[in-house]
TrEMBL record:
This is Right-handed parallel beta-helix repeat-containing protein. Pfam families: Beta-barrel_GLAA-B_I, Beta-barrel_GLAA-B_II, Beta_helix. InterPro entries: Beta-barrel_GLAA-B_I (IPR057275), Beta-barrel_GLAA-B_II (IPR056441), Beta_helix (IPR039448), Pectin_lyas_fold (IPR012334), Pectin_lyase_fold/virulence (IPR011050). It catalyses: Hydrolysis of terminal, non-reducing branched (1->3)-alpha-D-galactosidic residues, producing free D-galactose; Hydrolysis of terminal, non-reducing alpha-D-galactose residues in alpha-D-galactosides, including galactose oligosaccharides, galactomannans and galactolipids. Residues 377-534 form the Right handed beta helix domain. Keywords: Glycosidase, Hydrolase, Repeat, Signal. Residues 106-195, 303-370 form the GLAA-B beta-barrel domain. GO terms for molecular function: alpha-galactosidase activity.
Length: 537
């Protein structure tokens, strides 16, 4: 593969790397190793070495197509399967990828006792028992602790939970691949549920796209993604069409993603996710955002030193000469000045010095942040099916046009759609100005305090006359509610909730008697709620 890619790089003009249909294996001892800082992955403490182990490196390729012809690429050990760096006009198509030994392990509960329960370990998971403790073993990796979640095959849903293995007093092997977990209390379990376990360290990603433009994935199945999923970072015009991000049926596995599926950080142009199937993640299927950096010093009138604040995001150039920026109050999340970057000095992996074309504004607050508004994307998420998700379905914070249309969201454990933005926790920017959510079917999404659609900027200073978000239109959707809200919105103006069908069985809260019970608004203005229907089932 490496030789073929080198040959392709030497050809001027469009080139197709045609892989005869088959099963290809990629091993870490033959992989490329190179350092890459990737947004939303790991901190310096969690993973001091940012070197990535790369199965297929596409670097500096232009007008290039990787034709898989339906092949299956199997990756061994912890790898970033595919990495695109500085590429343009690249398409990957008709390809399936998987891991030989996935880093999320699975075991099915077979029976429960007074102080124990029995499980059967999936054939693709391996283990050892050391001093009564279960140790998961893979190709070059092992772990004993980490996040766990449960999959219910009857309702086709997953949720996060405390790790049973960390609470067990001992683990006993009844026979190969069959275990009994012992406790000093009564574990309430359901036979048939699947326990999924991982170590939580995102040391690699599934696919990384950086500094690239016009990249398209067509008819590609990514059947397991280690670490973070498909990450786009400072890239332009990324299209994901007819993607299958779910376990291969023949494996009998229930997990396809260690964390997010498609995660776009500071991209521009247009991000398109269309006609795909997304099932079995451990975090959000689609997340599109930028990154706020905090202003920590002003060495000169036209200079500001900025810092990456979240522990898992740092190390990359978040600004470039010519980029337009906005100064944002951390407490209100309202921008109060604009600027243009003329020079960027990389001081260290956490800090950058920006030289601006004009003096910075007066009165910069101690926690104020800067958003790079040049690197914000138009987003289109259409005709997809999302299922078996323990968190949210689609997260988006971009000021460009956003369309979320004709998707099915099946039992997201939290929100189906989240529009957040914050400058004190994840530092994921920024405001939205033109969002249309239409034609979607929301099947029993949300739970309790998690509404189906959540407009939730994390501003502390809340003023109805100074909204964070605006121009959100929610129309023509079907909400199949069960004990939760259809919509909760805060600090939004120009919000339209129109011609939606709300079907409620009420769950534990009883059947809804009016639309007012399905919607909660806080500090919103210019709201138009009209033409909706409410029925009970």
């Amino acid at each position: 593969m490496t030789a073929a890619l080198q040959a392709a790089a030497g050809i001027s003009g469009p080139v197709v790397l045609d892989c005869p249909k088959g099963r290809y294996h990629f091993y870490v001892d033959e992989a490329t190793r190179a350092p890459y800082y990737i947004s939303n992955t790991t901190s310096e403490t969690e993973n001091p070495d940012v070197t990535k182990t790369i199965g297929i490196l596409l670097k500096g390729l232009h007008n290039f197509t990787l034709e898989g012809n339906g092949s299956l690429f199997i990756f061994h050990g912890k790898q970033t399967m595919i990495l695109l760096d500085g590429c343009s006009n690249v398409e990957l198509r008709n390809l399936h990828t998987d891991y030989y030994r996935p880093t999320v392990t699975e075991m099915t509960i077979t029976s429960g006792g007074t102080h124990s329960f029995d499980t059967e370990v999936h054939p693709d998971s391996r283990y050892e028992i050391r001093d009564g403790r279960l140790v998961w073993i893979g190709e070059g990796w092992s772990f004993t602790e980490g996040p766990m979640q449960t999959y219910d095959p009857v309702r086709n849903t997953t949720w996060r939970m405390d790790n049973w293995l960390e609470q067990a007093t001992s683990v006993e092997e009844l026979e190969p691949m069959k275990l009994r977990l012992h406790f000093d209390f009564h574990p309430e379990v359901v036979p048939g549920h699947v326990l999924q376990n991982r170590d939580g360290i995102r040391d690699q990603v599934g696919v990384f796209i950086t500094g690239s433009s016009n990249v398209t994935f067509t008819d590609v199945g990514l059947h397991f993604l280690h670490g973070l999923g498909v990450v786009g970072q400072f890239s332009e015009n990324l299209t994901f069409r007819r993607m299958d991000l779910s376990p291969r049926p023949e494996t009998g596995r229930t997990v396809a993603g260690f964390a997010d599926f498609i995660h776009m950080s500071s991209c521009r142009g247009k991000v398109t996710v269309a006609d795909g199937y997304f099932a079995g993640s451990h975090d959000d299927p689609v997340n599109v955002h930028g990154t706020y950096l905090r202003i920590v010093e002003q060495p000169a009138p036209n200079e500001v030193k900025v810092r990456f604040m979240h522990h898992q995001t740092y190390g990359f150039l978040a600004f470039h000469p010519g980029d337009e920026i906005e100064f944002v109050r951390s407490r209100s999340l309202i921008s109060y000045a604009k600027g243009k970057v003329v020079a960027v000095d990389f001081l260290n992996p956490r800090e950058l010095l920006l030289t601006l074309s004009d003096p910075a504004p007066e009165g910069i607050g101690s926690h104020d942040v800067i958003e790079n508004v040049t690197w914000t994307a138009e987003v289109e998420v259409v005709n997809n099916h999302f299922a078996r998700v323990p968190t949210r379905g689609v997260l988006v914070t971009s000021r460009r046009k956003v369309v979320i249309a004709n998707n099915t969201f099946e039992r997201m454990h939290m929100n189906a759609v989240l529009v957040a933005v914050d400058a004190e926790s994840w530092y994921e920017s920024g405001k939205v100005e033109d969002v249309t959510i239409t034609g979607n079917r929301f099947v029993e999404c949300g739970s309790g305090e998690h509404p189906v659609i959540f407009i939730a900027p994390e501003n502390v200073d809340v003023d109805e006359s100074a909204p964070v978000h605006q121009g959100i239109i929610i129309t023509g959707n079907r909400f199949e509610l069960k004990d939760t809200l259809a919509l909760s919105a805060k600090s939004a103006s120009g919000l339209v909730f129109q011609s939606n069908e709300i079907v409620s069985d009420g769950g534990d809260g009883g059947v809804l008697s009016s639309l007012d019970e399905a919607i909660v608004l806080t500090a919103c203005s210019g709201v138009d709620i009209v033409g909706n229907t409410l029925t009970a089932e």
